[in-house]
Amino acid sequence: MNIGRSDTTHERTVQAPSGWLMLMIAIALIIGGVALLIFTIVGADADLIQGSQIAVRIVTSLLMVGAAIFLLNGLFTLQPNEARVLILFGSYIGTVREAGFRWANPFYSRHRGKAPTPPSESAGGKAVDAAKRALGLANLSTKISLRAHNFNSETLKVNDKRGNPVEIAAVVVWRVADTAQAVFDVDDYDSYVQVQTESAIRSIASLFAYDLGEEDEITLRGGGDELAQELKKHVQARLDKAGVEVEEARLTHLAYAPEIASAMLRRQQAEAVIAARTKIVLGAVSMVEMALRELDEKDLVNLDEERKAAMVSNLLVVLCGTSEASPVINTGSLYT
Length: 336
Prior knowledge:
This protein is an alpha+beta fold. Helices cover 47% and strands 19% of the residues. Strands 8, 9, 10 and 11 form a 4-stranded antiparallel beta sheet that branches. Strands 3-2-7 form a 3-stranded antiparallel beta sheet. Strands 1-4 form a two-stranded antiparallel sheet. A hairpin with a 5-residue loop joins strand 9 (156-159) and strand 10 (165-176). Helix 1 (19-45) packs antiparallel against helix 2 (51-72), helix 5 (189-207) packs across helix 6 and helix 7 (258-298) runs antiparallel to helix 8 (305-320). The radius of gyration is 39 Å and the shape is rod-shaped.
């Protein structure tokens, strides 16, 4: 038997009437019901109302108060950057995004399911879970925050492109863009964001080397904005299903794993020394070449090949040496 996948739910924005009008109607019904009940009791004591009329008026007053209580249950408030998903007996009606004091059908659900929590092994933990369920604290509200959220991932140990174990962590700034997808297409979008973000971080770490990649290759250490864009792209691809928009994603921690950190530090130091020496030698050779060319062009001194070799050797020693050179005055000849 083939089981088809359900279509993605998309948000429908609806308008909710102002709650002030319904509040005034409810107050009027309560006042009218109480007044009718009082007049009925007073009239019955004065024998001004017959027995059947008493029953009708009492029932009417109770219905008025009951209707007022029913209307009051539909009142709710929304703050700026907050929305409420309207669910009627399991059917999605729409999403209210307009902030303020609002009213909706009291039959609309106030909760959208149970929050997934790991089972507690201890007796105390089970008692706390049972108390939360009894008080409704484990229920997920139909109100959805549209504000920007920060998710700081834990430090994860993964292997980079070269197989070196590294520690990596990131911060992701996200917000709910489609409330219907966030509520109906995933179980709990908060947990979904956390799990999928960590999965994206592991994936991005395995695609790049920690440092010293090939020519023009992005590395984890020196990627900068390009790496941030790649991380954002990977996270967004995983969170599209939940109706979540990723605004920014950046690495907050990057280091070699402790077991190879000392060895990698020595390697980095050696590579830095080699790179520095390479630049020094290239600079020294260009300076020697310039000196020889200037001497030849200005015809200051005539040097044969052996004297040029001696001069090049001395200049390279001075320019490439790690300590201060001590000048030596030669009073003789190179050949004596």
